[in-house]
Amino acid sequence: MDANGQKFWSVSEPSQWNIIGDPAGLEYHTSRRALRLANQRRELQFVDNRELAEERLLITPQTLDSYGNRAYLNTETSSIVSTGSFEGEMEIFTVDSADMKISDMVMGFDGVLYIVLDGEIVMHDRRERWKKQNVQVPGENNFIAWRLAADPQGGVWVLDRENKKLGKVNGMPLHKLSQRKFTPDVGRPCKENANPPKLTVLKKIVWPENENPVAIACNSDSEVAVLTWIEDENARVYRITDEYETSSSIELNGVFYPYSMQWVTEDCIALLVAGPTKESPVYCLDFNQQSAWPVGDLYALKKDFNNGPFLHALDYPPHYPTSTESRALHHLSFPFYAKMGEAKNDPVMAPLDSGDAQMVWHRIYLEAVIPKGCGIKIWLAATDGEKDATAIMPEFWYEHRFGKIYEQTVREDIPVAVWESIPSELPHHAGFLPCKQEVDIAGLFSVLIQRSSRKVRSLKGRYLHLHVQLTGNGRATPEIFSLRAYGSRFSYVNEYLPELYKESVYLPEADELGESTAADFTGRFVSNFEGLLTNIEDRIGGSYLLTSPQTIPAESLPWLAGWLGYEIDDSLEESVQRNFIQSAADLYRWHGTLRGLKLGLEIATQGAVSGGEIVVLEDFRLRRTFATIIGADLDDKDDPLTAGGATNGNSFIGDSLFIGDENKKEFLALFNADLPVEGAEQSAIDTLFDSLAHRVTILVHEEVEAQDMNLISHIARKEIPAHVEYRVLSASSQFLVGMASLVGVDTYLANRKPKSTARIGESYLGKNDFIQGPAALDPRLEGVGSGVPVMKMKNPVAFADDETAEFAEDITLDAAKSRAFGGRKLTKYNWNYKGKGE
């Protein structure tokens, strides 16, 4: 609400825009949070040849692994060879007969090379986990495998082009290390392998009779797309739903017979067409639309492209083959946009509802970027009832224009917005633009809401309907970040001038076409001053925002902190600096206390203390630690807090109660100050208590980053009194549970971390990190492509000093100098007598 009591209604979220058209000419850019022209090229037609496309469908696709090694079919030897890590190539798979045909191969996310051999699927393990490296997947009748797509969740998707079917291969052969014989008295499951390799044909997936599936691809979210052809029509693409059914299709405008498809991102696919073009058409898929045009970015193909299909890969971007290698598909920074697009706030989002049937809509504020040659038109309509926008007659929509291109217009009565020098009409607000203001190009635009060509031009009605049209030149796009409509109109004429100047024309004459009345003109003229004065009044009325820590401009934070005598760290995030200034009074009040320390840490870490990621403990409480920790390993010599402690499995209530091992009570009783003790015992207790006095331990969850540990230490130095020592220690979640039980705070239990790759200087032995590289196609990457690395161990060396003895004299032979290597030990010595000369 502004200084005159006028409220505003905002439209800025994607759910509030109903984008019109199929394909739509507009899109909502999520990262910029803006409505803009779609990044696409319309009326673009790629020339492709059906016969040539059929020939290229017969080319066996190549595949890549995580290292960039490439495997492809050597047609001369009918074998699969790999290359990439070193010069030359290595044969990794051969067929039994030259008549056997390989139609596809794909490196899976599970370390298996899947091969389509004469319509059957062969699993070729690149880690040597099975007794047989090649395992054939049991097939099904009337299913001829042809194309594959690796699924990040494991297995592959299989396309049968001939029978128009789709299947999924799941399961793995039993690991060879788990295959051993058991005695009859050992209970075993009915099936040793509960998840063997299996092909499942998806019965619900069907295509129309006139469509021919030719390609399949799976993205990083395990979403599967299938490309189909229709004779002399645009190609179609389908998505496989979570219920294993086909979605509605999207018509790919501009292409008839693409022969290869891969995902470029989670939402966009790239195609290859058999024609003279030297680019790859890319389409962003919105299955709420029935058709799509290629995106505006240009994905060029190099001159050495050999016209083969895309390579199968485990990540983005896709690769296309050349005569000697493969190249990644990247786009050029030369965008194309649709030249026009439209959107409404109906029916997805209800029209703006003022709740007042007498509402006079006042002014539109638009935060936007409008490049040269671009413009925005907004048509407004007001109704007393919640009417569908499509039912409103065209003559009741009133146009308002934004942009320099509309300053020289034929119709002079259509209002054109002006650029405002302030970032937002909201007092001291920075606005929503992600870029700097630029006169007449970027920033805040405003226009008085009017009914052009009517005698009385004020727009009255409870509901406000919007119809937005963006226009561009194909190289740039306007962007709408936020639209705000104000009402009900605060009229200076009605509020401050005599009745003589007020409107005297009413319905139905007010709705008639014609020149505006004198009173209406006066009201609109005076509104020019109202617009300026209201902004000034709002900024004066909101001046308190310039001294509030949460709303003051970021550059003024040190100034505000200086007024409080508080020094803030510029390296902290802006929100943290604001919270420190907000809590400065409490920090001064509790400075040097445990409460002040916790408050400082809570602010600096943005809630880690209340969230249980940090536990602050006064060390004197540690005299009872051994009786209050639940489930901790008290014999852990490496933990500085429990070194040499006593093990227990007790249940605990409070700080001092313990129930448990009777043999430990004598020791644990030393920590109870209420028991009668002798002089020597009292001296030992006093020494223990003295060593724990004036000390604070800050336990931090082990998942906290190193830079945050430094921040915690910095805050501790600032908030802890000079006579108190402190230490910051990293601890596991189980340890934090025990420590937190002493101080009565909620504990932090992290979700189980997924398996990750071990990293030098960061990983700990036994802490969920694993040393195992991705499977490789090139076996020359020792230990990576063919099982776990096996180090060649040096054989043990037997050694004994020469000894001589007379006849019948005892002799002692000592093999102590024998050696074993690689961390192994000699546990047994075998002595053999050899004759002379042996």
TrEMBL record:
InterPro entries assigned: Tail_protein_I (IPR006521), Unchr_phage_tail-like (IPR011748), WD40/YVTN_repeat-like_dom_sf (IPR015943)
Signal peptide: none
One Pfam match: Tail_P2_I
Organism encoding this protein: hydrothermal vent metagenome
Protein name: Phage tail protein
